[in-house]
Design the sequence.
């Protein structure tokens, strides 16, 4: 099955290059393009792409603002950030706004195609070098959980972690799992304590790095 992708990047040459490479793979069709986020909502509704490839640094409506627009409109198309920027704040903000993947533009075509396929199937894909740098900046290595602690995560807690990685809010997780929002908040607090982190974003990053979720 050919996957439908939308490209959002302010540089025409970059868009043309990525489009040509993706179409050479024989697995991807680029169905829409935009030079910033100002038309993304309209184009997504019109073309129904399977995945959006989104740059962060763009004039007018940048990548972060585009993620905010997609979230406001409750559009669920998975977004893969494809950029040259790897600042901690940008990565964390992108995850908080629902991005399902984050890759640098120096990735191979094979890795990019695999990431698009992963997102289309409901998974997440974050370049390992980015998550490693983020985690090393969040906590000393000696504070990382021991394997015994990680094994203490229950199947239900792993399920909640996966939903958190997919951008679900507490209320949405509660609805999906037929639990009260209070119960979910308590379980998330337990997850944070077991992983030794202080917020949801860091929990997701660490879980991705450790291979607990995908």
Sequence:
């Amino acid at each position: 099955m050919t996957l439908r992708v939308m490209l959002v990047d302010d540089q025409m040459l970059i868009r043309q290059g990525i489009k040509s490479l993706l179409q050479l793979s024989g697995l991807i069709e680029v169905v829409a393009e935009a030079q910033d986020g100002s038309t993304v909502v309209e184009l997504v509704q019109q073309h129904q792409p399977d995945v959006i490839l989104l740059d962060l640094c763009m004039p007018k409506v940048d990548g972060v603002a585009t993620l905010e627009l997609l979230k406001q409109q409750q559009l669920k198309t998975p977004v893969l950030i494809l950029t040259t920027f790897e600042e901690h704040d940008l990565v964390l903000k992108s995850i908080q706004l629902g991005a399902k993947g984050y890759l640098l533009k120096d990735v191979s075509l094979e890795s990019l195609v695999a990431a698009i396929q992963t997102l289309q199937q409901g998974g997440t894909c974050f370049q390992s070098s980015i998550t490693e740098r983020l985690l090393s900046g969040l906590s000393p290595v000696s504070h990382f959980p021991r394997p015994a602690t990680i094994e203490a995560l229950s199947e239900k807690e792993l399920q909640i972690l996966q939903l958190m990685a997919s951008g679900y809010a507490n209320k949405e997780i509660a609805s999906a799992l037929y639990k009260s929002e209070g119960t979910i908040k308590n379980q998330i607090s337990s997850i944070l304590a077991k992983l030794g982190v202080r917020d949801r974003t860091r929990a997701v990053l660490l879980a991705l790095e450790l291979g607990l979720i995908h």
User: Anything to note?
Assistant: Confidence is low (pLDDT under 50) at residues 139-149. The chain has two domains: 3-136, 140-210. Residues 140-210 form a domain with the Arc Repressor Mutant, subunit A fold (CATH 1.10.10.10).
